[in-house]
Amino acid sequence: MGASVADVVDGLVAQLPANPVAVFGFSLGGYLAAALALAAPDRIERLFVCANSACALPTQEILQRQQLIHAIDRFGYRGLHDNKIAQMVAPENLSSSAIADCMKAMDQRLGVDNLIQQLRVTSERLDLQAALASLEIPITYCYGEQDKLVSESWVAALVKRNQWVRQCVIPGSGHMLPLEQPEKLARAIKSWLAPQ
Length: 196
Prior knowledge:
With 196 residues, this protein is an alpha/beta fold. The protein has helices spanning 5-15, 28-39, 59-75, 82-88, 97-110, 112-122, 129-132, 152-161, 177-180, 182-193, and strands spanning 21-26, 44-50, 139-144, 165-170. Strands 1-2-3-4 form a four-stranded parallel sheet, with helices on both faces.
């Protein structure tokens, strides 16, 4: 990962093929996918942003990230806590050990060094709404109905500003939409990929 979001996006642009492609991004990847589409609009055919609103992080979220980094530096990291899982998953899915186990395994694979770098690099984000409002490619913003990390008002405002943007809200899911409602998300992706 680069030293900034712009560095990450520059690296992604360098990897794009010459012909326009469909781009999907989940969570932080959704923000990066939106930034990528803005950086190289002629090389992006369509965009699917899952579980993200491409806006600046709230001050409270930035503060929590700084506190987490400080705590990890001081006390070490013991892995993804059940309280964090409860914040990211819809209440009706909390009893699924498969979801929690998968989230913990992903966290473990990422590792503490990558986690800290990701938190540092991606905390300072620009609000991309004004730029996305003029992007003329099919764009889908899809998120769980109970996703506390997505600003519904931000997505709704973008839908009003750009006729190319479609909003897809999936019930029975929080932030971990691919794990909580994989079949419903797959249908939304198939719809997005269908010829226009």
